[in-house]
Amino acid sequence: MKNPIRAILFALIFSLASAITSTGQSPSPYTIAGDLRDDGGRLFSGANVCALQTTAKIVNVRDRVCAESDAQGKFVINLATSGRYQVVAENMSEGYMPSYLPFYKDPNIPILEVTVSEENPHVSVSVKLGPKSGLISGKVIDEATDAPVHDFVVWTWQARDVNARTHQVVKGSALGRFRILAPPVPFRMRVVSEGYEDWVMGGGVLTSLAGSRKGPGLLLVRTGGDAQFAVYLKRKNPSSIDPTKPGDENRLAPPIQIAPEDNQVFDVFPRNTKLEWSPVAGAVGYAVEIEACWNRLPVVRERLPDDGECINPSPYEEKFGLHETTYEFLFKGAQPGRWRVWAIAKDRKQGMKSPWRRFSHLK
Asked: The domain spanning residue 203 has which CATH number?
């Protein structure tokens, strides 16, 4: 006959185990709960809402506790200890960056702070998700050879706070390109590569094919926008670099550009622009590169001579495999731009590039 006491104990243990399984973990002594909304006031699902405990001026980012907002934008953060907490929302995979990263904190928007205690163990809040970040992107080029720079570091920092910064290290990039999510406030940027002069936006040096010049001060990328840069780095010891590539004598000559004339101004809308150049003997095709330049705002005109130079060139369009000696496109805005063209030989070897020609659209 079975021991009735053992049977009763077994039944109690089984009952407790079932209760724990059905209810999950035991309730936390403290919670922060509420709803998450975007910057337009709409309920937002699928983002993390995190609680970061603060002591004096120190914020404990490493041990933050997070919960995901549900389909109705609701969340519950379970906490083991009482104290003062910052409540921050983020969805980095979708471009919503957290304000606990200094580079993405808007100094004009206070971070929500709450206190949970024995007297107030369950706090209810409404949390606002910051705006979606735009993109800082571009390509880094050796200005003497037009070849991509393969190894470089891009530093970006808030214009008002040099310590609120981030960076991207690019190694072995065949295209020499970079992409960084932008902060919600004006920023500055520096590109550093061994053997080159630093490229600095913001009171520093803006390097282009024409040489080193003072550049624009700072930039703000709007939500969903894209600040693009074509960064031309200048060699620290240019005498050691022959700007002609090996085998240039065997490359096709650059096409002669016909239209538009250099520095031509267009006063038309839509901004339809037609490029034309002369044919090159031995070419089986052509390639065109178009870049956009910054407008010379009054503050820029005060600092820079109006010599037709492209200020802060940014990639707009590259077109390969052209079989005609013309190309038409719609330009991006009422601003300056520039273009160049080169021939492609039958062995797919690229010919020498033409000089840049500048143009400008007024509307």
From this structure: 2.60.40.1120
Distance (Å, whole) CA 323 – CA 286: 6
Classify the C-alpha dihedral 69-70-74-79 as positive or negative. Answer: negative
Sign of CA dihedral 97, 99, 100, 106: positive
- The answer for 312, left when phi > 0, alpha when psi is -120 to 50, beta otherwise, is left
Residue 19 lies in a domain: no
> Which domain range does residue 193 map to?
135-240
The CATH number given to whatever domain includes residue 117 is 2.60.40.10
Give the pairing type, strands 205-208 and 211-214.
Answer: antiparallel
Phi-psi region of 300 (alpha: psi -120 to 50; beta: other; left: phi over 0): alpha
pLDDT per residue as tens, the chain (363 positions): 445 555 544 444 444 444 333 334 457 799 999 999 998 899 999 999 999 999 887 899 999 999 999 999 999 999 999 999 999 999 998 999 999 999 999 988 899 999 999 999 999 999 999 889 999 988 999 888 888 999 999 999 998 888 999 999 999 888 899 999 999 999 988 899 998 888 887 544 444 434 444 445 567 888 878 888 888 888 877 655 555 555 566 889 999 999 999 999 999 999 999 999 999 999 999 999 999 887 765 544 454 445 556 777 788 888 999 999 999 999 988 999 999 999 999 988 889 899 999 999 998
Which residue type is seen at 44?
F
146 and 228 share a domain?
yes
Bond into 183 cis (ω within 30): no
The answer on 267 and 215 residing in a single domain is: no
**Residue 16 domain-assigned (yes or no):** no
**pTM of the complete model:** 0.66
Element (H, E) at 284: strand 283-292
Q: Are residues 143 and 220 in the same domain?
A: yes
